Amino acid sequence: MTRPTTLFKQRYFLFCALILAVVALLWLGLRESSSQYRWDAASIKPFKQWYQINWHNQAVGRASVELERTDDQISVIENDFLEGRVQGRRFHFRYIREFNFSNQPPYQLISGKLYTEEPKLKVEASFINDEQLQLEEWRNGKHYQKSLATVDYTLQDYFYVSSYLERTPQPAKTFQAETLNTRDFVVETTDYELISAKPHQSSVTLQQRHPNEEVSWHQVARDGSFKLHSFANGMEYVASSRRVTLNPEMQDDLYLNSGVVVDKPLGAANQIKSVTLSLLNGELDWFRHHPAVSVNRENQTIQLSTGSQYKASDEELERIAAIETKLNPIAKTLALEATANVDNDWLKVQKLVGFVYDYLNYQPVPAGFNIDDILRSRVGDCTEYSQLLIEMLAAANIPAREVNGLVYLGDHEKRFGGHVWVEALVDGYWVAVDPTWNLVEVTSTHIPAAMSFDSRETEGNTRFAFKLEEIHYKAENSKESKRL
Question: Transmembrane residues, as ranges (predicted)?
């Protein structure tokens, strides 16, 4: 028989053990949800992180991400400033994005402000995210108002990647995060892939696939702070301990600096029938191959010919048939007037290419112009020329799309530079035209090659170049065609 005192002691010790267990669980719970984790919405503290913005290895700007906290709301302010020389002209760019979140769970986005200042473009916008998202915008002094669907976006969504990596010593190979698209005010899903996360390393490397299929890379410290964000176009944001000082007088031309050198001059682009190139310091897999480019993997070369065209796939035709386009009324009127009494689609394309070439005045405009801005200013570079042509082709019931790539800049530069042109759908074929150069047959130096660099090469800042392997000219004399 158990003595009463012994039974009492057993129950007492059991009771104490239960109390300790409960206290331990409570402590772990508080530890999980409190100040141990920097990026928790409930406890995140004000901070300001500076970044240096580089473009192809030269400093072109500074950026910051700042968090402010009041009794009513938590504000995140992104501020980017860039300065550089493009084709001999100096430009300034500023982008400010302010997102205000509730200071109470679930820390919902409640309002914000957006500011864009680019050459010939100034946009100020504010929004309130309630039962509907009410957007008010001033674009170059012109006032717009919109009512959009409310967005379900929280402070925890904004800091999700940082919070996830801070909490997860061994992150998954792939994961997703929600991002806010401030152009259309919709929440989009972004895919992340873990490229490198060795236990002894102080940071991890992530590849981010954006909703528009573009790819970028991040280096993120184990505590969730972003150290580096690199883009395939050569832009990168590098974390800095202080505000970066710029020296624009020491910059190279940003456009030319981003080009791709070729080892020999090609001559006049409009006289070249075909050209074969190989890559120096690179691999063909860096290209997202385009149907207009002939790829020889055995010789590691690409070949291009004058007059790019190829058959559209059934999937493309089905997708085009389902698209509903809202056209700019001015562009529509201009297109219909320019193609009056023309009943052949190819002739309409030729007419509109010539119209856009004559209608716009060429100026380097590294700005986010929309169709209204283009029609109002009547200036632009290859991007604006292509946007206007696509809009006018749509008015003529001819589907078209933008092509990004490279084009030969001439023997004085001996390099390829970034360029934009158009593919129009005519009789089931995509036909490439260039309104900037008034071409209804693109040259063989138009390379439709949006780059998709391997992350390991990108981290090494490897610069590549073209090597000219073979070139053929349009001249009848075969001696003018040559293999190099």
Answer: none
